[in-house]
Design goal:
The chain has 82 residues and is mainly alpha-helical. Helix content is 82%, strand content 0%. The protein has helices spanning 5-25, 29-51, 59-81. The protein is flat. It starts with a helix and ends with a helix.
């Protein structure tokens, strides 16, 4: 399935609405923060690959961004768990 800019924008809006709903409805702070963090990582990937046109870039940059974001989300998850 090829994602067009319009489809990605709609997906980004839906993820933003899910983030707002999750921040109001999930009572457990750890799960709410982790859920919002994962949704923001998905948003970052969508923007990175679709609008920054990194689909066609060198695989080194793709790997660096994926590793960085994984380490960032993991570190924040560990910090929140403490």
């Amino acid at each position: 399935m090829k994602l067009t800019h319009e489809k990605v924008i709609v997906i980004l809006y839906i993820i933003t609405l899910l983030t707002a709903v999750a921040s109001r409805t999930i009572d457990a702070l750890y799960f709410a923060a982790l859920f919002i963090l994962l949704l923001s990582a998905v948003k970052f990937f969508l923007v990175f690959f679709q609008f920054m046109d990194m689909k066609h870039s060198n695989s080194f940059w793709k790997t660096v961004i994926i590793l960085y974001l994984t380490a960032f989300v993991g570190a924040i998850g560990v910090i929140l768990r403490m």
